[in-house]
């Protein structure tokens, strides 16, 4: 399974978090549905729940991502980017944004890799992942994919110190930067000072225009409604 496949599966199977399926007896930190519920679907939902926690802002934009996966994120990013282009008039290129939902497989995989890095980093922004949760996450990722290289990559990303500048280096296009920021906004709890500060610095490192940043945040709020 490639990065896109694993991320898409995690996002779509996260519907278990929203539906409330599962009662494993693990009662805090998003652990409730970890190992129960409908077999395969609960696995993805459990891993996603552990990674993202159970805070107010940690539902990946309501149903937009958990039911729609990466394609849904691309649609929201496309709308935000297009709205921003229209606002800027002739100041920016009016070419159709090449968001992840509109790309062939090789480019979509590259975007997925960058988005996944952004999600993992955003999930670490408040330092909530402890050793016990980390062990459970690793076990669930191992169940979802037997790709040793992908498992090691995921492990390395979780271990890395939080560095928005390093994360931003993955953005090789404006659309990729927009998708990474959008995914991060959907993950963090903006009421948390550390997480809000992380978002601010990530936007700076991604070199997002203020108007585009605002449009992405607006679309994220609408998606989470």
Verbal overview:
With 225 residues, the protein is an all-alpha fold. The chain starts with a helix and ends with a helix. Helices cover 65% and strands 0% of the residues. The radius of gyration is 17 Å and the shape is globular. The protein has one domain (3-224).
Overall, the morphology is globular
Class by SSE composition: mainly alpha
The averaged pLDDT comes out at 77
One letter per element, helices H and strands E, the order comes to HHHHHHHHHHHH
- What amount of the residues lies in strands? under 5%
Distance between the termini: 32 Å
Number of strands: 0
Count of DSSP H/I helices: 12
- Extract low-pLDDT stretches: 15-45, 54-58
Largest sheet: none
Radius of gyration: 17 Å
Question: What percentage of residues falls in helices of 4 or more residues?
Answer: 55-70%
């Amino acid at each position: 399974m490639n990065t896109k496949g694993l991320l898409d599966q995690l996002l779509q199977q996260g519907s278990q978090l929203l539906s409330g399926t599962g009662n494993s007896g693990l009662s805090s930190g998003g652990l409730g549905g970890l190992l129960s519920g409908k077999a395969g679907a609960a696995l993805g939902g459990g891993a996603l729940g552990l990674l993202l926690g159970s805070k107010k802002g940690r539902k990946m934009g309501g149903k937009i991502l958990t039911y729609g996966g990466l394609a849904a994120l691309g649609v929201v990013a496309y709308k935000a980017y297009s709205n921003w282009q229209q606002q800027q008039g002739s100041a920016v290129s009016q070419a159709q944004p090449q968001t992840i939902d509109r790309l062939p497989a090789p480019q979509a995989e590259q975007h997925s890799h960058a988005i996944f890095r952004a999600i993992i980093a955003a999930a670490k922004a408040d330092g909530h992942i402890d050793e016990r949760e980390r062990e459970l996450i690793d076990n669930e990722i191992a169940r979802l994919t037997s790709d040793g290289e992908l498992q090691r990559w995921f492990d390395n990303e979780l271990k890395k110190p939080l560095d928005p500048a390093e994360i931003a280096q993955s953005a090789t296009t404006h659309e990729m930067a927009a998708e990474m920021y959008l995914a991060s906004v959907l993950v963090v709890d903006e009421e948390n000072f550390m997480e809000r500060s992380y978002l601010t610095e990530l936007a700076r490192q991604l070199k997002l225009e203020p108007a585009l940043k605002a449009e992405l945040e607006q679309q994220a709020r609408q998606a989470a409604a």
